[in-house]
Amino acid sequence: MSDCSFIPTAPAIEATGAAQEELHLRAVTATRAHFGNRVFVRAVVEASNYCRQNCAYCGMRRDNRSLARFRAEADQLAGLLIHHRPESVTDVNIQTGEDPVAAREVVLPLVRTLRRETSLGISVCLGNLGPALYAELQEAGATTYIMKFEMAGPARYERFHAPGTLANRIRHIRMLADSGWNVSSGFIAGLPGQTTPDLLTNLALSKTLPLSGCSVSPFIPGDETPLRDAAGSDVNRTLNSMAAMRLMRPDWVIPSVSALNLAQPGQGYRRGLRTGANLVTINLTPEEMRGNYLLYKRDRFIMTEERILGAIESEGLTPSTQSLADYLQSRRPMPEARREPELAAAQG
Ligand code: SF4
User: Fold this and answer.
1) 3-state helix, strand, coil in the chain (%, to 5)
2) How far is the CA of 313 from the centre of ligand 1 (A)?
3) In which element (H, E) is residue 125 found?
4) For residue 303, pLDDT beyond 90
5) Does 102 map to a domain?
């Protein structure tokens, strides 16, 4: 059983010096106790930068008219993932702006092909869609849906034009979990005006949701967003939030997000691995599309295979040979119909 009794506090979020070192060490110790030295390695492909939403913190918002929009070809991404993925990759995350056309015309056939041709675990991060499309994606073979709630607090959610309403976002997270998806969520640390109590509210909300994983992403003021002149996040509070999340939920899969290296160049990503992260992501988006997948800045810090494996090795960690999808599947309660015969067999 996981000890989920840790309650995040303001001193933990604001910890510096020796107190911070102790917090991070506790988080890493909890991670190792639960997952050993294994880190899940997934690839991400960014399949469309069209988006019908208008989040103030994101360069792909619909009002950014200077962005060249693209939808990838399913066949191109399939070829890349089937024939050219790094050996360490066990899972893939297919990500788009909120673009139902791409979800249907690119992601769905891509998931079907990958399910047929590979044993990769498949995650998708496609925004708010509808129950029918969620079901089709699941039927095609995707098992994890990433849907970040971005920030707790409905008024702040509205102020930053996060997708739809917070209540609806949470409804979708619950709907996905209820229909058998593994759901991973996440929030942004360091948005303008965000206080320590706000970060604690984010952590508290995440704990109430039916999740198998969660992320903390540092706010990076995007060049082509209304927040371009805002101050970026304090990387220490972001990492302290990650550590607190790990202690709150030792069993969650927590990624070290690439934006940590924008928040603290050269160090942020590895510090994430020292703060409880156990998932890393290699970016396999074709080079000609990457520049226009504009979450923050055009000059992206691309997590290549070499950078990822180097970071893992430097931290004394090893890539997991079990896929994230298989790991999550192994944790699911066995259906009653299967459990009884298997229990009887186990008892001889
Ligand atoms: S954060 Fe996602 S939903 Fe919001 S504008 Fe960017 S791509 Fe669209």
Assistant:
1) 45, 15, 45
2) 33
3) strand 121-125
4) no
5) yes
Ligand 1 near 60 CB (within 6 A): yes
Q: What average pLDDT does this structure show over 104-123? A: 98
Q: Can you give the residue range of the structural domain that contains 95?
A: 10-346
297 vs 256, more confident = 256
Whether the CB of 292 sits within 6 Å of ligand 1: no
**CA angle, 236 as apex, 235 and 241 as ends, to 5°?**
100
Instruction: Tell the residue nearest (CA) to atom 4 of ligand 1.
Output: 55
> What's the rounded mean pLDDT across residues 309-320?
94
pLDDT in tens, 278-296: 999 999 988 888 777 777 6
Q: Indicate whether residue 148 lines ligand 1 (CB < 6 A).
A: no
Residue 288: the pLDDT is: 81
Residue 4 counted as domain residue: no
pTM of the model: 0.94
Domain count, the chain: 1
The answer as to whether 3 is a domain residue is: no
- Bridge partners of residue 126, in order along the sequence: none
**Closest residue by CA, ligand 1 atom 1:** 58
**16 lies in some domain:** yes
Of 196, 180, 204, nearest to 325 (Cα)? 180
Spatial distance between the Cα atoms of 252 and 213, rounded to a whole number of angstroms: 5
